[in-house]
Design goal:
Helix content: 40-55%
Number of strands: 0
Shape: globular
Radius of gyration: 13 Å
Structural class: mainly alpha
Largest sheet: none
Number of helices: 3
Strand content: under 5%
Length: 67
């Protein structure tokens, strides 16, 4: 199921304002650039799911979620 630009926008806006992701770019900066970044980020998410290629950091999960 593809991710929409609206879903990507919601995730970005719901992040902490001073936190930084694996790219070390603070979410405050990402949110300010949201209108330019949501389309490429959506494409990256969808391509990753379609091709089954994920960064190692994205493979981590809390196994308690599945029990």
């Amino acid at each position: 199921m593809p991710v929409s630009e609206g879903e990507v926008e919601k995730v970005i806006k719901d992040q902490g304002k001073l936190s930084a992701g694996i790219d070390k770019v603070p979410d405050l900066i990402v949110e300010k650039c949201l209108k330019f970044m949501k389309k490429p980020r959506t494409g990256i998410c969808n391509a990753s799911m379609e091709w089954g290629i994920f960064l190692d950091v994205n493979k981590l999960c809390d196994s308690r979620t599945f029990t």
